[in-house]
Amino acid sequence: MKQPSLLERIEYLDIVNNSVSVVPIKGTKRTVRLRWIKPYTMERITKVWIDRDLASAKVKDAPDSLKDLAKEPYFAFKEAALMILNNDLKIRLFYWFYWRWLAFRYNEVQMLPIISEGKKKLPVLAHYAVMEFSTGMRTDLMKMTKKEAEQYRAELLSAANQPSSKTSQSTEGPAGGSDGGSATSDTAAS
After folding, report:
1. 183, burial (CB in 10 Å: exposed 0-12, middle 13-18, buried 19+)
2. Under a CB-based contact definition with an 8 Å cutoff, are residues 92 and 41 in contact?
């Protein structure tokens, strides 16, 4: 089995300890600190996406690249601001101002490393594990009918009653007798 490299072990410890990632903003001396993205932040990022999709309904007769920019020209700044603030109280108090300050001061290329690092800080695997474990507990999924359940049970019972191909019914050896053909039966010996 291949052991993880040193960088992979360091990254694992960063994940477990929820350590801060320091992301430099290109072209400046400024850095931002990112932690694991919280559920409220994910909800707000989803809301930004929904607002962007609603804006696309208004733009119709334009080339695709212009249409994409016209949908939400400040999308990168809004998403970066949410990832940097990453707290429901901070988002409620400062988000409206902070994304505008980022848009005024920086460009989208400078926001790309922040968004890229923020994507790494999403607890997606834990979310998928919870979804997988809770799937069987749902009541709205179709279960087997009574007839299907009885048929399935009958198939299991019939498979259990059939002898395995590895066990043999007879105990005879290769020459037809149990001890190489020199054995005598009880009736012949008396």
Report:
1. exposed
2. no
CATH classification number, 6-124, choose in 3.30.2220, 3.30.70, 3.30.750, 1.10.1200: 3.30.2220
Q: What is the pTM of this model?
A: 0.59
Amino acid identity of residue 115, one-letter, is I
Phi, psi torsion values for 127, nearest 5 degrees: -65, -45
Show the tokens assigned to 78: 């809004």
pLDDT of residue 185: 47
Q: Which of 59, 54, 79, 82 is nearest to 69 (CA)?
A: 59
Place of tokens 């009541």: 139
pLDDT > 70 fraction of the chain, expressed in percent and rounded: 71
